[in-house]
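Run: sequence + PRP -> complex structure.
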Amino acid sequence: MLEQLRKSFQSCPIVKRGEYNYFIHPITDGVPLVEPALLRDVACSLFKALDLADVNKIVVTEAMGIHIGTVLSLMTDIPYTIVRKREYKLPGEVTIGQTTGYSKGTLYLNSVFDGDRIAFIDDVISTGGTIRALLPAIESTGAEIADLCFVINRGNPDIGRPYKSLVSIDVDSEGVHVLDSYF
Ligand SMILES: O=P(O)(O)OC[C@H]1O[C@H](OP(=O)(O)OP(=O)(O)O)[C@H](O)[C@@H]1O
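>> structure
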């Protein structure tokens, strides 16, 4: 498994965003093209990786958690909610400050409540800034985080709890180097 994903890093363009070497990849950017075989490879591996026992919601972040969340939801019949970059002011909405290696922004968590048992997936973890802000926000609702998996692990940051990833990579100005793959 994951042959498609491992192979897909061979041609990733790298662009500088400040001092940050940003890799452009179909799963993390939706460009140049998201091939069904790659998406299937990722979805099947996420399904294998995650412990979804008694999970009643999948949580993903806008934007590049949406496509993998959609496929996993269709595979498992578990509904998903998107942590958006837009405020909705729905009852219980949680506002979260997001900092990545190249951007700062605000995220809004809705539809996660006390008693929920959620699985969180995202396309990539890099500095860990996004997930370190999201974890306490999800826990503040009283929900339980049953499992956590990232498609791509760049940098293996410590986020204060265990997490899973499908592939670990290193990135430099020359390109992306696959270090290992799991599941
Ligand atoms: O570990 P971190 O350094 O926080 O980086 C990981 C986050 O960065 C991206 O989000 P971003 O909002 O930048 O981009 P997107 O809208 O393309 O998902 C990505 O989707 C992750 O959520």
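>> summary
The beta strands are 14-17, 20-23, 57-61, 80-83, 94-99, 104-109, 117-125, 144-154, 164-172, 175-181. The radius of gyration is 16 Å.
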